[in-house]
């Protein structure tokens, strides 16, 4: 689907994947004017095909577009494009637990113009691919690397937008995490390098002994995760005390050592919920609880997966059914 300043959205088509033609002067290649989303289509246990909260993805895509000076694709068009693709590819949606059809909508600047100003031409595209669990160990606890060298986003920047540039800026920190035997990087805030923000591609939660669930607040520098929002709602229903509150890396260490903090987990569309077992930085490491998945993490994971697969009642109306014609 294309967008130009004179015609608006036009020339949509769905078909087999094939390479694009792109001008070497296209603005995206020089100034990174690009945004994307990550979402999944699931097979429910009764054979239906559903999306999980696609309106939330469409709205976040719109907010990212505004921040990156791009045109906003109306929610109905965004969902219609996804639906058409899923209908065409529905035979590729895996049925096993943890597997799904991953969907990657993205919008990028195609105008051939080297001046630094917003492009006047864009292409919107959605890729689909069957996926299994995000981490090879399934729901096995991950080890995370706390980056002291690099930050992901600063106040006034693009941290709350899902734009390619954020990920480009985080790649070196992610590579360091891998070099230190870790699965993911944890970013701290840009000002004090003290407050925990989020992981390279996931939000983060902490569970205390007395049943409190904490997550960093939406300060404008972290992504407003749809999984994060769903967990906040499910946890409150379960009777947990839910707090969106700043939490420092120093306090995390102290609370893990004293046993006040019993669990920590990361969450996002790709991995759903994954326990954090070990936290490592340049000075050393510590273990959360006994290093295994805790009961709160397990319960929230199963509730979320069961809602997505139509096993548990969808009381929040999060599932968007796709009629396969
Ligand atoms: N933070 C970052 C940086 C991410 O890339 C993602 C994945 N989209 C998330 C958080 C989790 O967001 P969601 O639950 O909407 O997938």
Lay out the secondary structure.
Layout: E1 2-4, E2 8-10, H1 27-31, E3 34-36, E4 39-43, E5 49-52, H2 54-67, H3 75-89, E6 100-109, E7 121-131, E8 142-146, H4 164-179, E9 184-188, E10 196-199, E11 203-208, E12 212-215, H5 226-237, E13 241-244, H6 249-258, E14 261-268, E15 272-281, E16 284-287, H7 295-308, E17 319-322
Parallel strand pairs: 8-9, 8-15, 12-13
Antiparallel strand pairs: 1-2, 1-7, 3-6, 4-5, 4-6, 5-17, 6-7, 9-10, 11-12, 11-14, 14-15, 15-16
Helix pairs in contact: 2-3
The structure holds 4'-deoxy-4'-aminopyridoxal-5'-phosphate (PMP).
The site of 4'-deoxy-4'-aminopyridoxal-5'-phosphate has 12 residues, from helix 5.
Report what the structure shows:
By secondary structure, the protein is of the alpha+beta class. The protein folds into 2 domains: 2-131, Aminotransferase class 4, branched-chain amino acid transferase, N-terminal domain (D-amino Acid Aminotransferase, Chain A, domain 1, 2-Layer Sandwich), CATH 3.30.470; 142-308, D-amino Acid Aminotransferase, Chain A, domain 2. The protein is built from 7 helices and 17 strands. The strands form 2 sheets. Strands 8, 9, 10, 11, 12, 13, 14, 15 and 16 form a 9-stranded mixed β-sheet that branches. β4 (39-43) and β5 (49-52) form a beta hairpin. The mean pLDDT is 96. Bound molecules: 4'-deoxy-4'-aminopyridoxal-5'-phosphate. 4'-deoxy-4'-aminopyridoxal-5'-phosphate binds at residues 38, 198, 201-203, 223, 225-228, 268-269.
């Amino acid at each position: 689907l294309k967008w130009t300043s004179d015609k608006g959205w036009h020339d949509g088509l769905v078909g087999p994947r094939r390479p694009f033609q792109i001008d070497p002067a296209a603005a995206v290649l020089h100034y990174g004017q690009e945004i994307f989303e990550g979402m999944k289509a699931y097979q429910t246990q009764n054979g239906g095909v559903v999306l999980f909260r696609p309106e939330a993805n469409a709205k976040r895509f719109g907010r990212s577009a505004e921040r990156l000076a791009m045109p906003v694709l109306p929610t109905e068009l965004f969902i219609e494009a996804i639906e058409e693709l899923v209908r065409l590819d529905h035979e590729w949606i895996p049925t096993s637990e943890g597997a799904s059809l991953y969907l990657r909508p993205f919008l990028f600047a195609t105008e051939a113009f080297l001046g630094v100003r917003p492009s006047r031409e864009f292409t919107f595209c959605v890729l689909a691919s069957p996926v299994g669990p995000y981490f090879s160990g399934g729901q096995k606890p991950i080890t995370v690397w706390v980056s002291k060298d690099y930050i992901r986003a600063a106040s006034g920047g693009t941290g709350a937008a899902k734009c390619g540039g954020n990920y480009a800026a985080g790649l070196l920190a992610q590579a360091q995490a891998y070099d230190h035997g870790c699965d993911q990087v944890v970013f701290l805030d840009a000002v004090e390098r003290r407050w925990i923000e989020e992981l390279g591609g996931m939000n983060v939660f902490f569970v205390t002994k007395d049943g409190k669930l904490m997550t960093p607040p939406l300060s404008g520098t972290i992504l407003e995760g749809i999984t994060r929002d769903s967990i906040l709602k499910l946890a409150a229903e379960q009777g947990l005390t839910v707090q969106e509150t700043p939490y420092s890396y120093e306090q995390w260490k102290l609370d893990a050592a004293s046993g006040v903090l019993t669990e920590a987990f990361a969450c996002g569309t790709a991995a759903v919920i994954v326990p954090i077992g070990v936290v490592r930085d340049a000075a050393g490491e510590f273990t959360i609880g006994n290093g295994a998945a805790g009961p709160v993490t397990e319960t929230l994971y199963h509730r979320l997966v069961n809602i997505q697969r139509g096993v548990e009642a969808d009381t929040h109306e999060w599932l968007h059914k796709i009629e396969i014609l």
